[in-house]
Amino acid sequence: MDFNGKVVIVTGAAQGMGASHAKAFIDHGATVVLTDVNATEGQATADKLGDHAHFMAHDVTSEADWHQVIDQTVSQFGHLDVLVNNAGITYSKSLFDVSTDDYLKIFKINQLSVFLGTKFAAAAMKAQHHGSIVNVSSINGLVGGAVGYTDTKFAVRGFSKAAALELAHYGIRVNSVHPGVIDTPMIHQGDTDEAVKQFAKMIPLQRVAQPEEISKAVLFLASDDSSYATGAEFVFDGGLTAQ
After folding, report:
1. Which residue among 91, 103, 149, 170 is the active-site one?
2. The domain that contains 153 carries what CATH number?
3. Is 228 part of the annotated catalytic residue set?
4. Does any domain span residue 242?
5. Nearest residue to 118 (alpha-carbon basis) of 164, 152, 72, 74
6. Which of 55, 84, 210, 227 could pair with 46 as two cysteines, CB 3.0-4.6 Å apart?
């Protein structure tokens, strides 16, 4: 998978899977724009990744921010080849404890951001008649889980299919990735380590995944090696949803 000369945007790239995706693209020759609302950590991650990493502060729920990120990327690097809509959050709350503000926050970050990113990235890609958009959903875009998180991840899956059909005419592919339990800061909120260990025993492969394992899938979908894949969902969950 050769990304020399390719320009990639990865959202939510300050840490976790986003940082892993950015590193993987750079390791394969790409120029990567890392975006995140956490400017301090995002810039530190970009600095660690070297000269081919460029950080932009970015609220993925803001239409104005999306305009700025896309316009600045194209202005600085000449084109845009890949967008990875990775930014996302989750809550560990019951239906009765999720407030309207909670719900709107998770909707905006997990779902609205994917719509905005796909819309504006595709506008930049369609003139060149090629591009790949990879939307990070979850196994909770396939099976039930927490209220709010599940809803938005199902929506990412459906939106990816709808966008793929519309954008195929422009040579732009759109696919969704559905990770299972990944060893990132998201699963280490509070005293959760023992619970994660116990849950891992329920996974057929008997372990959680490392972020780099998902990054390999993202690279494949972003590359020409997957040139006939669009509108599809790719599941990486250690066999969890096969049970």
Report:
1. 149
2. 3.40.50.720
3. no
4. no
5. 164
6. 55
Q: How many residues does the chain have?
A: 243
Quick check: is 241 in a domain?
no
Per-residue confidence in pLDDT tens, the chain, 243 aa: 899 999 999 999 999 999 999 999 999 999 999 999 999 999 999 999 999 999 999 999 999 999 999 999 999 999 999 999 999 998 888 999 999 999 999 999 999 999 999 999 999 999 999 999 999 999 999 999 999 999 999 999 999 999 999 999 999 999 999 999 888 766 666 666 777 788 888 999 999 999 999 999 999 999 999 999 999 999 999 999 998
Tell me how many domains the chain contains: 1
What's the order of all strands across the beta sheet hosting 172-179? 53-57, 31-36, 7-11, 82-85, 131-136, 172-179, 233-236
Cα distance between residue 22 and residue 52, in whole Å: 10
The whole domain housing 47 covers 7-236
